[in-house]
Design a protein that fits this description.
The chain has 107 residues and is an all-alpha fold. It is elongated. The protein contains three helices and no strands.
């Protein structure tokens, strides 16, 4: 949208004077100002109501303990790795006696 220069403003004012007349322009400007004040007042009330709702909602929410105090429900990666290594070691130990018995049987 191009900027309005002084010539454009003069042309707009002339058209307004021709449409409404010189006597009605102050009344129209006053009504426009009152409408803008009412609009600003209503929008500020709406924002205050929204803020009030948010504070009530924040107060109504239960407080949860910090995450550091809650134990993890699943084991960590390190814990799972340690368990797998133990299981692998047990399987190897269980397999070694069988292979050592097989080596002694060839007789």
């Amino acid at each position: 949208m191009p900027n309005l220069g002084p010539m454009e403003w003069i042309l707009i004012l002339l058209v307004l004077i021709l449409l409404f007349g010189a006597k009605k322009l102050p009344d129209t400007a006053k009504a426009l100002g009152q409408s803008l004040r009412m609009f600003k007042k209503e929008t500020s009330k709406m924002s205050e109501e929204d803020e009030a709702r948010q504070t009530v909602k924040a107060q109504a929410e239960p407080v949860t303990p910090p995450a550091a105090q809650i134990p993890p429900t699943t084991p960590s990666v390190e814990e799972r790795l340690r368990l797998l290594e133990e299981e692998n070691r047990k399987l190897r130990e269980a397999q070694q006696p069988v292979s050592s018995q097989n080596e002694q049987r060839p007789n």
